[in-house]
Amino acid sequence: MVEMQLSPRAQEILAAIVREYILTGEAVGSRTLVRHQGINQSPATVRNVMSDLEEQGLLHQPHASAGRIPTDIGLRFFVDRLMKTREISEAEKQEILSRYKLSNLELQELLREVSRLLSDLSRQCALVLVPRTDAARLKRIEFVAIRERRMIAVLVLDSGQVLNRLLDVEPLSREELEGVHRYLEQLCVGQSLAEVRRRVEQALEGEQSRYDRVAARALALGMQALRAEPAPDELLVEGQSKLLDVPPGGDPEQAKALLRAIEEKRLVLRLLDETIRGEGVQVFIGAETREEEIKSCAVVARAYGGKEALGTLGVIGPASMDY
Asked: 316 has which bridge partners?
């Protein structure tokens, strides 16, 4: 949060400038504020306040004859201190539920629909960082025999993901299969997949697997079921075309640079990783992104999944976006 004291008049004028800048993407003059934002002050008074705000680093005058635009610091002050937020109405919630039947979808498709919804609602490019499988904890493991030497291992994770693995096995009696299931549940449930693999590997090297048939079969099946596999796209992106809707006075080259950054993913993933470690909604404005390629952009994101965050969702767009 920007620690700076402004008079009520200065706050009113700064908020009006930001609102007008969000609407037009252009420098804002004193007469425009009086006409369009309902500022009950003379243009001369507004100009004096704007000059003071510029000296404080909250506004910038791109050209001598132009109005002012908010700086990154000015936008940050607005977001932290002046912006009024509203909750989604009940009617909007019902519209979302009727448009996207989210509860009937698998997790990966659910997140894709969420990214589309977020892009449509915000009119910005939406980003969703999907849960990383290795970090998710194993909630349940089941084995389903489908033929004499074929079996499906079903891994249920606390992230909501369900992994199905087709296994080639030696014939197992019903009692042996129940023993395998109990052994693996005791060894693995509640642990991350990365930790589960480590435990299974350690157990395979231990004495019990050499002398206990059930343990040996359980660990062999566990190694098959818990094998690492290529992860799905860890970053879902929706609405890239909205980045090309450059506002008047905007920089098309910055839009192209942002598209390249999203395509490369590295820069965006770093910001979303920071959001997972933070609390509540995180807003990165301009230089706060610490990346030259997106220095004129903003990211608004929040972790999802409760106390142990599973991923992040948010939007990325120009710094003049409607926060």
From this structure: 125, 299
Q: Burial code of 48-73, b = ≥16 C-beta within 10 A, e = fewer?
A: ebbebbeebebbbeeeeeebbbbbbb
Task: Give me the half-sphere count of Cα atoms (radius 13 Å) on the Cβ side of residue 237.
Answer: 19
Considering the entire predicted model, what is its pTM? 0.72
Which tens digit of pLDDT belongs to each residue from 23-71? 888 888 888 888 877 788 888 888 899 999 999 999 998 877 778 999 9
Structure tokens at 3: 């620690």
3-state secondary structure the chain: CCCCCCCHHHHHHHHHHHHHHHHHCCCECHHHHHHHCCCCCCHHHHHHHHHHHHHCCCEECCCCCCCEEECHHHHHHHHHHHCCCCCCCHHHHHHHHHHCCHHHCCHHHHHHHHHHHHHHHHCCEEEEECCCHHHCEEEEEEEEEEECCEEEEEEEECCCCEEEEEEECCCCCHHHHHHHHHHHHHHHCCCEHHHHHHHHHHHHCCCHHHHCHHHHHHHHHHHHHCCCCCCCCCEEEECHHHHHCCCCCCCHHHHHHHHHHHHHCHHHHHHHHHHHHCCCCEEEEHHHHCCHHHCCEEEEEEEECCCCCCEEEEEEEECCCCC
The token duo for 151 is: 């079996």
β-bridge partners, 137: 192
38-to-47, 48, 50, 61 alpha-carbon distances in Å: 15, 17, 16, 22
Report the alpha-carbon distance of residue 117 to residue 100 in Å, rounded: 8
Residue 28 forms beta bridges with which residues? 68
